[in-house]
Design a protein that fits this description.
The protein contains 5 helices and 7 strands. With 223 residues, it is α/β, with parallel strands linked by helices. The chain folds into 2 domains: 50 residues, no CATH class; 137 residues, Alpha-Beta Complex (DNA primase DNAg catalytic core, N-terminal domain), CATH 3.90.980. 17% of the residues are buried.
Protein backbone atom coordinates (compact mmCIF):
# COMPACT_ATOMS: atom_id res chain seq x y z
CA UNK A 1 0.00 0.00 0.00
CA UNK A 2 1.32 3.41 -0.92
CA UNK A 3 1.99 5.80 1.89
CA UNK A 4 -0.82 8.25 2.51
CA UNK A 5 -0.32 11.75 1.13
CA UNK A 6 -1.27 14.68 3.35
CA UNK A 7 -1.85 18.25 2.20
CA UNK A 8 0.22 20.22 4.69
CA UNK A 9 3.16 22.49 3.94
CA UNK A 10 5.98 21.69 6.30
CA UNK A 11 8.80 24.04 7.19
CA UNK A 12 10.92 22.80 4.28
CA UNK A 13 8.24 23.80 1.76
CA UNK A 14 7.65 20.34 0.26
CA UNK A 15 3.95 21.05 -0.19
CA UNK A 16 1.21 18.61 -1.06
CA UNK A 17 3.44 15.66 -2.04
CA UNK A 18 5.07 15.34 1.38
CA UNK A 19 4.81 11.77 2.65
CA UNK A 20 3.50 11.00 6.07
CA UNK A 21 6.44 10.19 8.29
CA UNK A 22 6.49 8.40 11.61
CA UNK A 23 6.76 10.79 14.51
CA UNK A 24 10.13 10.73 16.24
CA UNK A 25 9.94 10.41 20.02
CA UNK A 26 10.43 13.70 21.82
CA UNK A 27 13.51 13.93 24.04
CA UNK A 28 13.16 14.93 27.67
CA UNK A 29 14.58 18.34 28.53
CA UNK A 30 17.61 16.77 30.22
CA UNK A 31 18.45 14.16 27.54
CA UNK A 32 21.54 14.54 25.38
CA UNK A 33 21.42 16.00 21.91
CA UNK A 34 20.75 13.13 19.49
CA UNK A 35 21.65 15.16 16.40
CA UNK A 36 18.02 15.80 15.48
CA UNK A 37 16.76 17.76 18.44
CA UNK A 38 18.56 20.46 20.30
CA UNK A 39 18.79 20.32 24.06
CA UNK A 40 16.77 23.06 25.77
CA UNK A 41 16.61 23.20 29.54
CA UNK A 42 13.06 23.80 30.64
CA UNK A 43 11.66 23.61 27.09
CA UNK A 44 7.94 23.16 26.57
CA UNK A 45 6.59 19.70 25.80
CA UNK A 46 6.67 20.11 22.02
CA UNK A 47 9.03 23.03 21.54
CA UNK A 48 11.59 20.70 19.86
CA UNK A 49 9.21 19.33 17.18
CA UNK A 50 10.59 20.30 13.79
CA UNK A 51 7.59 20.61 11.49
CA UNK A 52 3.79 21.03 11.47
CA UNK A 53 3.62 17.49 10.07
CA UNK A 54 5.18 16.09 13.19
CA UNK A 55 3.37 18.49 15.45
CA UNK A 56 -0.01 17.24 14.22
CA UNK A 57 0.71 13.86 15.77
CA UNK A 58 2.01 14.99 19.16
CA UNK A 59 -0.19 13.70 21.95
CA UNK A 60 -0.14 15.83 25.07
CA UNK A 61 0.53 13.86 28.27
CA UNK A 62 -2.26 13.15 30.70
CA UNK A 63 -1.75 15.34 33.74
CA UNK A 64 -4.01 13.57 36.19
CA UNK A 65 -6.74 16.17 36.04
CA UNK A 66 -9.62 13.77 35.44
CA UNK A 67 -11.45 13.10 32.18
CA UNK A 68 -9.90 14.62 29.07
CA UNK A 69 -7.09 17.16 28.92
CA UNK A 70 -8.95 20.21 30.12
CA UNK A 71 -7.23 21.75 33.13
CA UNK A 72 -9.19 23.07 36.05
CA UNK A 73 -8.84 26.77 36.55
CA UNK A 74 -7.76 27.59 40.09
CA UNK A 75 -9.03 30.94 41.23
CA UNK A 76 -6.49 32.84 43.28
CA UNK A 77 -7.99 34.34 46.41
CA UNK A 78 -6.68 37.81 47.13
CA UNK A 79 -5.72 38.21 50.76
CA UNK A 80 -7.09 41.20 52.63
CA UNK A 81 -6.24 42.78 55.95
CA UNK A 82 -8.69 42.08 58.78
CA UNK A 83 -11.90 44.06 59.00
CA UNK A 84 -11.36 47.32 60.86
CA UNK A 85 -7.56 47.29 60.52
CA UNK A 86 -6.09 50.75 61.04
CA UNK A 87 -2.53 51.95 61.46
CA UNK A 88 -1.64 53.91 64.59
CA UNK A 89 -0.87 57.06 62.63
CA UNK A 90 -4.40 56.93 61.15
CA UNK A 91 -6.11 56.15 64.46
CA UNK A 92 -7.41 58.59 67.08
CA UNK A 93 -4.76 58.69 69.85
CA UNK A 94 -7.38 59.28 72.54
CA UNK A 95 -9.36 56.18 71.54
CA UNK A 96 -8.92 53.71 74.47
CA UNK A 97 -8.02 50.67 72.30
CA UNK A 98 -5.42 52.80 70.51
CA UNK A 99 -3.78 53.70 73.83
CA UNK A 100 -3.96 50.12 75.13
CA UNK A 101 -2.44 48.58 72.01
CA UNK A 102 0.25 51.27 71.80
CA UNK A 103 1.14 50.84 75.48
CA UNK A 104 1.56 47.11 74.91
CA UNK A 105 3.95 47.72 72.01
CA UNK A 106 5.93 50.27 74.03
CA UNK A 107 6.20 47.77 76.91
CA UNK A 108 7.99 45.43 74.51
CA UNK A 109 10.42 48.09 73.39
CA UNK A 110 8.81 48.75 70.01
CA UNK A 111 9.38 52.32 68.90
CA UNK A 112 7.34 54.64 66.69
CA UNK A 113 9.86 54.14 63.88
CA UNK A 114 9.38 50.35 64.02
CA UNK A 115 5.61 50.76 64.07
CA UNK A 116 5.73 52.91 60.94
CA UNK A 117 8.32 50.78 59.13
CA UNK A 118 6.29 47.58 59.53
CA UNK A 119 2.89 49.28 59.12
CA UNK A 120 1.76 47.88 62.45
CA UNK A 121 -1.88 48.53 63.27
CA UNK A 122 -4.79 47.04 65.17
CA UNK A 123 -8.47 46.25 64.84
CA UNK A 124 -11.50 46.20 67.08
CA UNK A 125 -13.81 44.51 64.59
CA UNK A 126 -14.50 41.01 63.31
CA UNK A 127 -12.58 37.82 64.05
CA UNK A 128 -9.37 39.68 64.87
CA UNK A 129 -10.89 42.19 67.27
CA UNK A 130 -8.56 43.22 70.10
CA UNK A 131 -5.40 42.26 68.23
CA UNK A 132 -2.36 44.09 66.96
CA UNK A 133 -1.90 43.38 63.25
CA UNK A 134 1.51 43.07 61.58
CA UNK A 135 1.13 42.74 57.79
CA UNK A 136 3.58 41.15 55.37
CA UNK A 137 4.14 42.18 51.75
CA UNK A 138 5.89 40.61 48.77
CA UNK A 139 8.78 42.33 47.00
CA UNK A 140 6.14 43.70 44.60
CA UNK A 141 4.19 45.20 47.50
CA UNK A 142 1.30 42.70 47.52
CA UNK A 143 -0.13 41.55 50.85
CA UNK A 144 0.75 37.87 51.41
CA UNK A 145 0.30 37.30 55.16
CA UNK A 146 -0.38 38.98 58.50
CA UNK A 147 0.07 38.20 62.17
CA UNK A 148 -2.52 39.08 64.83
CA UNK A 149 -1.35 39.43 68.46
CA UNK A 150 -3.75 39.98 71.37
CA UNK A 151 -2.61 42.76 73.70
CA UNK A 152 -4.88 42.43 76.71
CA UNK A 153 -7.04 40.13 78.81
CA UNK A 154 -6.53 36.37 78.78
CA UNK A 155 -7.32 35.20 75.25
CA UNK A 156 -7.42 31.50 74.50
CA UNK A 157 -4.82 32.08 71.79
CA UNK A 158 -2.33 34.94 71.92
CA UNK A 159 -1.80 34.72 68.17
CA UNK A 160 -4.37 34.47 65.42
CA UNK A 161 -2.77 34.69 62.02
CA UNK A 162 -3.77 34.89 58.38
CA UNK A 163 -5.37 31.89 56.68
CA UNK A 164 -2.63 32.07 54.03
CA UNK A 165 0.02 29.32 54.10
CA UNK A 166 3.00 30.64 56.03
CA UNK A 167 5.34 28.05 54.46
CA UNK A 168 4.74 29.54 51.01
CA UNK A 169 5.83 33.11 51.74
CA UNK A 170 8.82 35.21 52.77
CA UNK A 171 7.62 37.54 55.52
CA UNK A 172 8.00 41.15 54.38
CA UNK A 173 10.38 40.33 51.56
CA UNK A 174 10.03 43.90 50.30
CA UNK A 175 12.21 44.95 53.26
CA UNK A 176 14.94 42.35 52.67
CA UNK A 177 18.28 43.25 51.12
CA UNK A 178 19.67 39.94 49.85
CA UNK A 179 23.08 41.53 49.29
CA UNK A 180 23.59 42.05 53.04
CA UNK A 181 23.86 39.73 56.05
CA UNK A 182 20.52 38.19 57.01
CA UNK A 183 19.20 37.25 60.44
CA UNK A 184 16.76 34.35 60.67
CA UNK A 185 14.46 34.65 63.69
CA UNK A 186 11.56 32.63 65.04
CA UNK A 187 8.77 35.18 65.39
CA UNK A 188 7.73 38.52 63.97
CA UNK A 189 8.36 40.44 67.20
CA UNK A 190 11.90 39.02 67.37
CA UNK A 191 12.64 40.47 63.97
CA UNK A 192 11.71 44.04 64.92
CA UNK A 193 15.04 44.50 66.68
CA UNK A 194 17.36 43.04 64.03
CA UNK A 195 17.99 44.84 60.77
CA UNK A 196 17.43 42.73 57.65
CA UNK A 197 15.79 39.85 59.50
CA UNK A 198 13.33 37.21 58.29
CA UNK A 199 10.89 35.51 60.70
CA UNK A 200 10.36 31.77 60.18
CA UNK A 201 6.88 32.13 61.73
CA UNK A 202 7.64 29.05 63.80
CA UNK A 203 10.50 26.82 64.82
CA UNK A 204 11.30 25.34 61.43
CA UNK A 205 12.76 26.73 58.22
CA UNK A 206 10.34 26.29 55.33
CA UNK A 207 11.58 24.98 51.98
CA UNK A 208 10.64 28.29 50.34
CA UNK A 209 12.72 30.27 52.83
CA UNK A 210 15.61 27.80 52.61
CA UNK A 211 15.73 27.99 48.81
CA UNK A 212 15.43 31.78 48.84
CA UNK A 213 18.38 32.06 51.22
CA UNK A 214 20.41 29.53 49.24
CA UNK A 215 19.91 31.17 45.85
CA UNK A 216 19.48 34.86 46.72
CA UNK A 217 21.54 35.62 49.80
CA UNK A 218 24.99 37.08 49.09
CA UNK A 219 25.99 37.81 52.69
CA UNK A 220 26.22 35.75 55.88
CA UNK A 221 23.16 34.16 57.44
CA UNK A 222 22.70 34.16 61.21
CA UNK A 223 20.26 31.82 62.90
Amino acid sequence: MCPKKIEINDQNGRGKDAEKRPVQPLPLSHEKNDGKHQKHEGASFYSDVHSPVERRHVRMPHRGLGEGLEEKQVKKIKLRLPKGYVTFKDSNPIYPPHREALNYLKSRGITDDIIEKYRIGYTMKGDYSGRIIVPSYTKEGELNYFVGRAWGGNPKFKYKNSIAEKDKIIFNEHLIDWEKDIYIVEGVFDGFFLENSIPMLGKHLSSVLFESIYFKSKGTQYY
